[in-house]
Write a structure and sequence with these properties.
Blueprint lengths: L11 H14 L5 E6 L8 E5 L3 H7 L16 H10 L7 E10 L7 H7 E2 L2 E2 L4 E8 L2 E11 L4 E8 L5 E2 L6
Parallel strand pairs: 3-6
Antiparallel strand pairs: 1-2, 1-3, 4-5, 6-7, 7-8, 8-9
């Protein structure tokens, strides 16, 4: 990871597609990727990924203590696509990794931080979007990016129920 500040623009249409994914997956977490071209900061594609957390929990409940209601785990093909999309020269670049939280808000949890880092440093130059899924839909989302000065993921944008960006990141 370069440690650079991640900038990304998410159009409401892409955000609403993520909201639909979260609503359909509820009461389990959804997960996926938002991609764009090799230049610029705008995402124009949402890729729904398979949440394999239930399978991992069933295979090894000691290592994978939580099920898909409170965790997500990318399958091998999704992890490979993520890796390939972040290589130099990729034509489609992952800019955002997203997942939902069910009934607890769109905060970046300690588990989220652990999954996004290795040896205390971010694994990827991407932003992380957490969606607030509830029984009757999605309340909004919060976008997080690595802050090298604070050595943590901090909110950089928030999104309301209609998928539009809110200028000041106050939604949690």
């Amino acid at each position: 990871m370069s440690g650079r500040h991640v900038e990304v623009e998410i159009p409401a249409t892409v955000m609403l597609a993520a909201y639909a994914h979260a609503a359909e997956s509820y009461p389990e977490e959804c997960c996926g990727l938002m991609l764009g071209g090799p230049e610029g900061i705008t995402v124009d594609e949402l890729l729904r990924c398979e949440n394999r957390q239930n399978q991992m929990h069933a295979l090894d409940p000691v290592t994978f203590k939580r099920d898909a209601r409170t965790a997500y785990f990318f399958g091998p093909s999704d992890a490979q696509l993520l890796d390939k999309s972040l290589r130099k020269g990729a034509q489609r670049v992952t800019r955002v990794i997203y997942h939902s939280h069910c009934d607890v808000g769109a905060y970046f949890s300690a588990s989220d931080r652990l999954a996004a880092t290795m040896d205390g440093e971010p694994m990827y130059d991407v932003a992380y979007l957490v969606l607030d899924a509830v029984i009757n839909g999605v309340m909004g989302g919060m976008l997080y990016a690595w802050n090298a000065t604070r050595h943590d993921f901090l909110p950089i944008a928030s999104f309301g129920p209609q998928g539009h960006r809110v200028n000041v990141p106050t939604y949690i």
